[in-house]
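As noted in the main text, all predictions were made from sequence alone. Below is one such record, for Mannosyltransferase.
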Amino acid sequence: MSLALGLWGVRRGGSMWRDEAVTYDMARRELPELWATLAEADAVHGLYYLLMHGLFRLFGDVDPLLVLRLPSVLATAAACGTLALLGRRLAGPRAGLLSGVVLALLPPVQRYAQEGRSYALVCALVVWATYLLVRAVTTGSRRAWAGYGAVLLGACLLHEFAVLALVAHAVAVPAVRRRAWIRAAVPVCAGVAPLAVFSAGQSAQVAWIGGLGAGAVASFAGVVVLGVCCAALLCGGGGPVRLPVLALALLALPALLLMLASLVKPLYVDRYVLYGHAGTALLIGAAVDRLGRARATALLAAGAAALALLPYSAQLRAPASRTDDLTAIAQAVREARRDADGILYLPARRRVWSLPDPTAVRGLRDIALDGTPADSHTLYGTEVPASVLRARMLATPRIVALRDPAGQPLDRTEPELVKRRVLDTYFEECRVWRVQGARIAVYARPGRC
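Prediction:
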């Protein structure tokens, strides 16, 4: 089921959004350029970019959207299959099957199953590591313990917040196996520590993350309440690792710890702990199995859930489901560039909108650009000082400006202030295109619209 859901509408109408554009650009850089960029930015995703670089080298002639997204599709299918095996081991074959089906159906999982980012791969590795943990606790096998540590370390190197799964695992490990677990966990922490220390020096990259919103807290609380209600149906019995304890810990603890850390420095984004939904799926699958003893009843419940989610699933496969739509932005720029002289990105990081399809801005001078992303070993390129920028803008009669939609927070750096001030003072707005997640406007000196 997960594979079918992942392949359904995987191209999303040919659209791509800004985070995927970063993956696409980084994966196609030459290895020396990629390595130099990771030394300056986005090291937390370095291993993923290297993996995607290899895939684009191997399959460069294939549709780039498929190369970009199929790893996540396959990883999600693997996560659902592994979760089914885990549920089978903890609660029986029907509970395992239902858990795998529920994970495939969960909207956040469906979303990131079709994105060119690392989160689905991290989820698959955390689920696999959790399965190996249960196997190691049950059998005491050294090979299982070694595999557990190696797989979880791989997840952490793909995204360091996977290390929070260790806390969930610690809660579920029985006392008799605690020493063995510590021997496996210490190398994981030691292995991810250099990446964590190094990436902390690049923390300016996550400055866009806002404080905890009421919606995020309410959503998390609702999922936890659901998990607790399911766990209440599963009390009693069980082997050395009890499903309610493991699943609740996986569902709640990584997200909760990230939320608490966000009280000091905003870091919480739900996709960073996507793997926590494996705990949700385990609890729901086992609870449905307990409530619907007959196989037909359980399958009917799964089918009803799939039908209920169908409209939302279809919406996830439309370009409008993401923050922005780079295909629509490129088309608007093609229309706006007629008779224009230069292009300006407000803020500078929106230059990412033009990276997948540079032909859309062909013929337009990038007014603020100092060094291209590849040449400057940055994600979005470097820009000239504010004084030079002002002079360049005043020397450009007509400017195509790519901006965030109205109402978005405005950067307060001097170059961004100069961009807005010069446009407001010396130019008039001639025409505007509003597309998903962006506002493209043509500005001209007074009387030249």
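Residues 64-91 form the longest helix (28 residues). Strands lie at 342-346, 365-366, 369-371, 382-383, 398-403, 428-435, 438-444. These features were considered when defining construct boundaries for the mutagenesis experiments described in Section 2.9.
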